Amino acid sequence: MTDATFSGAVPRQSLYAPDEGMRRRNAAEARFRLYGLIAVGIGLVALVLLLSSVLLNGASSFRQASLLLDVPLDAAVLDKAGDRDPEKMKRVTTIGYGKLLDTALKEMIASKGIVIEGLTDKDVSDMISKEAAALVRNRVLAHPDLVGQTVSFKVLANGRIDGYLKGRVSMESAARDSNVSPNQLRLADALREEGVLIKAFNWLFITAPDASELRPEAAGLGVAILGSAYMMIIVLVLSLPIGVAASVYLEEFAPKNRWTDLIEVNISNLAAVPSIVFGILGLAVFINFAGLPQSAPVVGGLVLTLMTLPTIIIATRAALKAVPPSIREAALGVGASKMQSILHHVLPLAMPGILTGAIIGLAQALGETAPLLLIGMVAFVRDYPGAPPEGFFDPASALPVQVYNWTQRADPAFVERASGAIIVLLIFLLIMNAVAIVLRRKFERRW
Amino acid sequence: MSISVLILIVLAIAVAGYVMARRRAMALTGGDRRKLHSLIGYYGQTVFLFASVPALLFLGAWLFVQPIVIESRVSSFITPADIPEGGSLDLVMSDVRRVAGGLDAVAAQDGLSEADLEAMRADFSNVRSRLASVGVALGSDVKPNVFEAAKVYRGALKTSRLAMVIAVIAASLAGLVLSYRRVSPEFRARNVFEGFLVALLIGASLVAVLTTFGIVGSLLFESIHFFQLYPARDFFFSLTWNPQFRGGSDLGIWPLLWGTLYVSFVALIFAVPVGMMIAIYLSEYASKRLRSVAKPAIEILAGIPTIVYGLFALITVGPFLRDYFAQPMGLGSSSSSVMTAGLVMGIMLIPFVSSLSDDIINAVPQSMRDGSFGLGATQSETVRQVILPAALPGIVGAILLAASRAIGETMIVVMGAGAAARLGLNPFEAMTTITVKIVSQLTGDTEFASPETLVAFALGMMLFIFTLGLNVIALVVVRKYREQYE
User: Fold this and answer.
1) A26-55 pLDDT per residue, tens
2) In chain B, which end has fewer C-beta atoms inside a 10 angstrom radius, N or C?
3) Which ipTM score applies to this complex?
4) CATH code of domain A222-443
5) In CATH, what number does B241-481 get?
């Protein structure tokens, strides 16, 4: 023990008055805080920009320009035999229906007294989407007794007219565009005033199949939603049992040895493998080797199952670990076997955690795009896949792939569609995550 | 008989086995359950498992092997002369499959019997037009050998289906009978049942191992295939990437590797400081209220699918960077560029870096902070001189993991970086990456067995090695240098 003797200089000023060094350090402190705040701000701004860019671009795709037309379904054109037999009526192609729609629109223009200089017949017939005739034809074939009556239809307007109502097409751009003329836009203005051209909620966007490059107004998400749903069913049915079984083994039964170590390292590595590599695996093994069909939900489902497995295994193991050992010991103490203690007590208690993990895994799988590109899901598919289980082998699309597909097309109307599709995708993800959060809140137990 | 019906039959047999086994156990003890070794349900469940699981596994294996066996048998019918110029055996075999499928439709439409089909000859009957009438369009007339092969294929498929149904039902019944005969009061049904379940659990945990084998196997197999067609030296050392439809392509990996590393570098330069500062601010400075809002909001970024980021790059960030930076500075006029993809990918990586760093910073014990404060350090000095050095191995690991994510990311670069393979420094120019080229080479129209398609597997191999390597290094760094606190 030595006596401390003070030998330094006596401070010349009060401790409360900061000296030069202290001021610098305080300034550095404030700067550091500011950097942190800026970083948080960048993160939040990025999130807001990301979501708002998608929402602003895509919200308009849920409303679509349509024409309200009274169409006289002339029996002489549509049903020459006169016996309302749908088989015979199928001989009338969409061209025949298209002409009916043309005349209906022309009569509508005449009856409303709209006169536009230089408006050609082609201009008028191009106001209506090429897809509209097919939709009317399907409706008439489904209800043959409509023939002979004058029925009011809501038919899709051309994509450019739709773009005009949404501000994507203007008079100047129309003058340069060979697909639309300024006269048509003037006609659109007039029809809108008369209440013939309306903007209404667009159910077709959610239910209709994809449409060709030239008909953005008719493109819908029906096949893609169905394909995604099929894949999610496959992922759920396969990855949940396999993932839970694997985790129960690794967590509760596995001896600690080299083999189980290998399995554990494997699972954590699989979680880090880029998703596109799973697509290569799917192409090489499921399509080329096992001969499964391309673009089929079954292949997509299998690939996504393998991708989701690590997520589910990791979540399930955490949930199993959270069940306290006293539960197991109590079960063993009253004479249950190890398997009984797990099946009857540990698993049911871990179930909320397992389901939460499974839903989050599913949500990841739903948004995954890259592996699906490689197994041929980019193909243009117009037919709805059949009912499962056979429908699992029919070609289909998937929501995120449909988004990618639409961004690759030239017409800017498809950008709006792609953003709209993303909104649909995000709504699904939101629902899934909300369910996961509710499950966790409601059933989570603290021991 | 369709496969779903077959599965239902197997399950019905198994359920019958369950009921029978329970009855038998009951009857053998004269209704006194206490004389049984196990609870009575275990007798039924054991028989159920033995009747269903082996049969279903057998069915799966059969379905997997069947096309391979049949194809190899049928392809012996095809002589080299049947393979058209520039085509391959694969294409001819797909014709065979389509003709075989079309024959079924023809038979159903025209009401032909098996004998009529057998008598049909490619050179007499007008096969092509008949097939076209049922919706099977063929590029050229059907060659006799192809037609014969199709008939054999069809026959083999039929016999194989029939054999499969018989074999699967037999397996199910055999499992039922064998396990049913063992049911007796002394039979240790619970132990057998639990043993069976453990075997199933082990099988499930092997799926992960099988997946890895599948990945490595398929990458290796097709890469070797590629290197037989294209010299490995050119792939690894050539500086040009220029695939051609008609052969003579330059497939050097360097431009792609450069693009990948450049984009990832830009992404990390953006994401690492931002992500780390977010983690530091939220764990050291932020009030509870800000933390409870900002943390989940940042984590939302991690839950957004990458296709959304891709679209964001394509319609918002790309045009913005082009109009306000690249064109005024005269650096380029392309909206897809290294900068676009890098920035958007950086946004994607922010939550990844910040949540990893958050865990690491929180793992540094409070006593170290208290010690530093006690010596008179300010909060930022504590962070910079005490916490960060202590957390450094973990942070390096996190950065390496983020780099591995960036290298393997696909959709953002497909939609944001462009497709031009180029070795350049200008960040506002379009460049391309390994993942972009994997997608474009495998979704293109080139024939599968050509080097232009197979190169995708070699690229996938490189990608797999890179990401795996980074992950392993990250793991080693964390394990080796982590400070142990109690």
Assistant:
1) 999 999 999 999 999 999 999 999 999 999
2) C
3) 0.89
4) 1.10.3720.10
5) 1.10.3720.10
